[in-house]
Specification:
It is a single chain. This protein is α/β, with parallel strands linked by helices and 282 residues long. The chain contains twelve helices and eight strands. Strands 1-2-4-3-5-6-7-8 form an eight-stranded mixed β-sheet, sandwiched between helices. The radius of gyration is 18 Å and the shape is globular.
């Protein structure tokens, strides 16, 4: 991450590779842009790919305010800073979905297309563990380092359908260790608030651009019923379900995900696409 953009007390690290139509990747929580790096590398021969770490994550500053409100404004500001010749294709995972949707719907960020991968976008969201930590962040922040590390490792492992490799686990867990990382981990959970998606959820019907929704069928963090609901809420959205993949679809099914993302940013169909059914009964 060889570039830095600073605004409003936040220092965001980002990088750009390749040439061609721009593609911006948005990561989620508790991840960083490194989760998208292999997919971005596969697209770099034909596209200009841009990766960034949100404030509070990865190599960016461990800011005090890391709410979705901040992150949506930051993405819109970054797009202005980059001064791209054409609207980018945006690919977002998890929390990054809400970030990308807020930047577009509330801050006027223009996109060529939007690919939403196992995203936070619909109420209700947050697992029982997530809610427990959010409501007791001060207690969890005081955990001794070994207990904190064990908790983070167990939490991260639960996002994958397949066992994580040692290197992948270290990449995901490492930023949250140490005193600064521990405080940042619980801070970003404490500031998670469903009101930031409640604010935009009624406006998904306004989306007027190609939208591709990709979801792992074995996602236990954001179950696949959300994929069907989201596809029904967005006019013309394509829905693609990826079998044997959990929330960490980048690691569970990298080839399938890369093919779907490449098809989306290239304007090519990616059969087979699951039909978007009517909103299922609650």
């Amino acid at each position: 991450m060889d570039e830095v953009y600073s605004v409003d007390g936040h220092r965001v690290r980002w990088t750009s590779r390749g040439a061609g139509p721009p593609v911006v990747f948005c990561h989620g929580t508790p991840w960083s842009s490194r989760l998208w790096a292999p997919v971005a590398a596969a697209l770099a021969p034909s596209h200009r790919v841009l990766l960034w770490d949100m404030p509070g994550y990865g190599t960016s500053s461990k800011s005090d305010d890391v709410s979705l409100g901040v992150q949506g404004r930051m993405l819109a500001a970054l797009l202005d800073h980059w001064g791209l010749d054409d609207p980018p294709h945006v690919v977002a995972h998890d929390y990054g979905g809400a970030v990308a949707l807020r930047a577009h719907l509330l801050h006027g960020a223009a996109y060529a297309s939007l690919t939403l991968v196992d995203v936070v976008a619909l109420a209700p969201w947050g697992s029982e563990f997530f809610r427990l930590v959010r409501d007791n962040a001060a207690v969890f922040t005081a955990l001794p380092a070994p207990l904190h590390e064990a908790l983070v490792r167990a939490y991260v492992r639960g996002a994958a359908f397949r066992p994580l490799g040692a290197d992948d686990e270290e990449m995901l867990v490492g930023p949250w260790l140490g005193a600064e990382g521990r405080a940042a981990f619980y801070r970003q959970i404490a500031q998670a608030d469903q009101r930031f998606t409640d604010e935009i959820e009624p406006r998904y019907g306004e989306l007027d651009l190609p939208v591709r929704i990709v979801w792992g069928t074995e996602d236990t963090w954001i179950p696949v019923d959300r994929a069907h609901r989201l596809a029904a809420a967005i006019p013309g959205a394509e829905l693609h379900l990826v079998p044997a993949a959990g929330h960490l679809i980048q690691l569970d099914a990298p080839e399938a995900l890369t093919a779907l993302v490449l098809g989306a940013v290239s304007g090519r169909p990616a059969p087979p696409a699951s039909p978007a059914p009517a909103r299922p009964a609650s």
